Amino acid sequence: MGLVIADRVKDTTTTTGTGSVTLSGTAPTGYQAFASVMATGDNCYYAIAGGAEWEVGYGTLTASTTLARSRIIASSNSGAAVTFSAGTKDVFMTIPATVVQGRGSVWATANGYA
Predict the structure, then answer these.
(1) pLDDT at 108 over 70
(2) Averaged over 26-31, what is the pLDDT?
(3) How far apart are the C-alpha atoms of 91 and 56, rounded to whole Å?
(4) How many Cβ atoms are within 10 Å of 30's Cβ, its own excluded?
(5) For residues 10-38, average pLDDT
(6) Are 89 and 49 in contact (CB under 8 A)?
């Protein structure tokens, strides 16, 4: 489907490992849930942050509360997928620096950022 870019989209996850992330489905107050702005099959740029572990990537919403981590752009694991440990992590939409700087991004080129 399409690339979705929306403001103030945030959720949490307790997912561990390197696979798809199961979202809580309930956005914190003042934020939107992923499923409220995306349909199953839509893509987005995301960030996951929990303690010293973090990852920025391109993902696909494969179910209303499942975000597949399709392509890792940057991370605390030298740019590879992070094996997230136990605990709650924030998951939110973002625009990665590499996209804004235009490194290989169709979106950045089309919008005058390349």
Answers:
(1) no
(2) 96
(3) 10
(4) 7
(5) 97
(6) yes
Residue 112's H or E segment, with its range, is none
Q: Do 93 and 13 touch, CB atoms closer than 8 A?
A: no
Torsion over CA of 56, 67, 48 and 37, rounded to 10 degrees?
Answer: 90
Residue 16: CB atoms within 10 A of its CB come to 13
Rounded to whole angstroms, how far apart are CA atoms 21 and 110?
Answer: 30
- Interatomic CA distance for residues 77 and 11, integer angstroms: 22
For residues 67 and 64, give the distance between their C-alpha atoms in angstroms, rounded to a whole number: 8
Q: How far apart (Å, rounded) are the C-alpha atoms in residues 45 and 104? A: 14
Could you give the dihedral angle defined by the CA atoms of residues 12, 97, 45 and 7, in that order, rounded to the nearest 10 degrees?
70
pLDDT at 98: 79
Q: What is the pLDDT of residues 41-100, one digit of tens each?
A: 999 999 999 999 999 999 999 999 999 999 999 999 999 999 999 999 999 999 998 777
**Please, are residues 40 and 62 in contact by the beta-carbon 8 Å criterion?**
yes
pLDDT in the model for residue 12: 97
User: Is residue 22 within 8 Å of 65, Cβ to Cβ?
Assistant: yes
